[in-house]
């Protein structure tokens, strides 16, 4: 009997406590919802009406970024080598404009990223047309498949010109304008291979390692000017990157790897890029469990990592369709 009375008393106390906590819990959830709403409103303002330059905009991830940033109300500058492809995209974006959010007709600037002199001229042309740049997305790049022993140095150089020196030249052509305004955000689309190297990707991994190092240094140097720098390191993305990859003799690889075909949806990666800009994230890694685990093994137990990569190289002794 005594136990039943104690149980009853305890239940009443618990009910009372829950009754007292309910308004607090509901208030907490309401505050969280309000914070998220305010955050979403702030996010729109960080992209809306901003001048956003996207390289490699005509296809793949660049095209998806163009669509997403256009929908968010950005003033796009579409960059690439083929003017006709960029014009087609600009027309598609213009025709798709709808809703209450104001959108802008994109500008187009064409140049070859591997020609650093023309890249610098393109940077000046962008500033001439738009007056300033708020957000620069260094997306364009080329991949590589090859055995180091069979790869000419000119191919290694070609990859570095496109993936490293090109983005560096464009960044530095626009950087002083951002510093003068104490405003700007620079995004570098790197790769998980900028953190770990795998066999038969030497030139590509080297270029992405260089990109990671450069933009990490840039972030530190321009922070005092109020500039933001983001490095996005995705794993495989479902684009034509492997098909257009360069082999050791300079020819195209021409194969859609299984890892690429089953990779990230480029639209999903584009959303991550937009979120990174809106949240001013310094680094974003989009990869599966194994690649992320490999980065920690490389850091904490490099000897194990080296053995694993050597085993992978022996298992796959020649570049071929995966």
Q: Could you walk me through the main structural features you see in this protein, from its secondary elements to its overall organization?
A:
It comes from Denticeps clupeoides (denticle herring). Keywords: Membrane, Oxidoreductase, Transmembrane, Transmembrane helix. The chain crosses the membrane at residues 284-306. InterPro entries: KR_dom (IPR057326), NAD(P)-bd_dom_sf (IPR036291), Sc_DH/Rdtase_CS (IPR020904), SDR_fam (IPR002347). Residues 50-240 form the Ketoreductase domain. The structure is a single chain. This protein has 322 residues and is of the alpha/beta class. It has a single domain, classed as NAD(P)-binding Rossmann-like Domain (Rossmann fold). It is built from ten helices and seven strands. It has helices at 2-47, 60-71, 83-96, 116-130, 153-181, 202-222, 258-261, 266-279, 289-300, 302-315; strands at 51-54, 75-80, 107-110, 135-138, 185-189, 228-234, 283-286. Strands 3-2-1-4-5-6-7 form a seven-stranded parallel β-sheet, sandwiched between helices. Helix 6 (202-222) links the parallel strand 5 (185-189) and strand 6 (228-234). Helix 1 crosses helix 8. The longest helix has 46 residues, at 2-47. It is globular.
């Amino acid at each position: 009997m005594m136990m039943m009375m104690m149980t009853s008393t305890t239940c009443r106390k618990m009910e009372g406590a829950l009754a007292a906590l309910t308004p607090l819990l509901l208030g907490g959830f309401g505050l969280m919802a309000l914070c998220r709403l305010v955050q979403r409103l702030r996010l729109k303002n960080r992209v809306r009406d901003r001048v956003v330059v996207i390289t490699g905009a005509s296809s793949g991830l660049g095209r998806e970024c163009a669509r997403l940033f256009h929908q968010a109300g950005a003033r796009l500058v579409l960059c690439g080598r083929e003017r006709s492809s960029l014009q087609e995209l600009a027309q598609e974006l213009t025709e798709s404009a709808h809703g209450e959010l104001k959108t802008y007709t994109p500008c187009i600037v064409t140049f070859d990223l591997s020609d650093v002199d023309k890249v610098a001229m393109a940077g000046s042309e962008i500033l001439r047309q738009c007056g300033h740049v708020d957000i620069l997305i260094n997306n364009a790049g080329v991949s590589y498949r090859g055995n180091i022993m069979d790869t000419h140095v000119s191919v290694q150089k070609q990859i570095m010109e496109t993936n490293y020196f090109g983005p560096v030249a464009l960044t530095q052509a626009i950087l002083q304008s951002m510093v003068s305004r104490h405003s700007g955000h620079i995004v570098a689309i790197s790769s998980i291979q900028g953190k770990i190297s795998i066999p038969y990707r030497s030139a590509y991994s080297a270029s992405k390692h260089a990109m990671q190092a450069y933009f990490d240094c840039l972030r530190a140097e321009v922070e005092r000017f109020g500039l933001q720098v983001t490095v996005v390191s995705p794993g495989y993305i479902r684009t034509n990157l492997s098909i257009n990859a360069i082999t050791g003799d300079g020819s195209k690889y021409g194969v859609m790897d299984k890892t690429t075909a089953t990779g990230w949806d480029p639209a999903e990666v584009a959303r991550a890029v937009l979120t990174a800009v809106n949240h001013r994230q310094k680094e974003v890694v989009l990869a599966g469990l194994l690649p992320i685990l490999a980065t920690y093994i490389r850091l904490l137990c490099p000897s194990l990592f080296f053995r694993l990569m050597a085993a992978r190289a022996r298992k796959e002794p020649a570049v071929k369709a995966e």
